[in-house]
Task: inverse folding
């Protein structure tokens, strides 16, 4: 992994965030040519004794610090997974919101991705396990096993950044007319 983002050798830097109230993962990729490289990968753990509000402050400080260190052009963030526990969803949504505010305070545009879309982009299956996502990222980005943090939240965040890279690098198809009537309406000068 490279940690020289401050030299701005990258044409584009994308930070991925996997928000959480116990562990927040982050992954930063830099794109100098066509292929992305891992710039940073890690996780921030929060102490169990901390109140939820103090954890939110630490999330904000952590994301702000990452943004100021790596100067990302864009942020990709994993959307909260809709589970059955409403309290957990609420806490996770707050964590995501605080992370977003930190990036927005530095004018970093944000794109949110559903967990299944991220998994699909990386592994080809929206139901892939965290371990499968990690292994696929390890292979795609040539990450040495010893460089992988033990927290899977880190590779989840890296997967969000890679998903955004794939989605935003894809050429956009032109939206043509949906019918002959619409074609004629759009192109009155091309009629015989």
Result:
């Amino acid at each position: 992994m490279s940690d020289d983002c401050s030299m701005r050798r990258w044409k584009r830097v994308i930070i991925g965030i996997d928000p959480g109230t116990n562990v927040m993962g982050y992954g930063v990729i830099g794109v100098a040519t066509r292929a992305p490289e891992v710039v940073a990968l890690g996780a921030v753990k929060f102490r169990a004794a901390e109140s939820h509000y103090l954890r939110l402050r630490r999330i904000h400080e952590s994301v702000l610090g990452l943004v100021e260190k790596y100067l990302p052009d864009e942020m990709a963030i994993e959307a909260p997974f809709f589970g059955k526990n409403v309290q957990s969803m609420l806490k996770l949504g707050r964590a995501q919101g605080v992370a977003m505010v930190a990036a927005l305070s530095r004018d970093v545009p944000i794109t949110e991705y559903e967990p299944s879309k991220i998994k699909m982009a990386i592994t080809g299956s929206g139901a892939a396990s965290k371990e499968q996502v990690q292994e696929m990222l390890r292979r795609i980005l040539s990450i040495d096993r010893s460089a992988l943090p033990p927290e899977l939240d880190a590779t989840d965040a890296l997967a969000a950044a890679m998903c955004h890279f794939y989605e935003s690098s894809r050429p956009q198809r032109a939206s043509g007319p949906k019918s002959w009537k619409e074609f004629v309406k759009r192109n009155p000068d091309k009629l015989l």
Summary: The mean pLDDT is 89. The longest helix spans residues 52-70. The beta strands are 12-18, 23-31, 36-45, 74-78, 110-113.
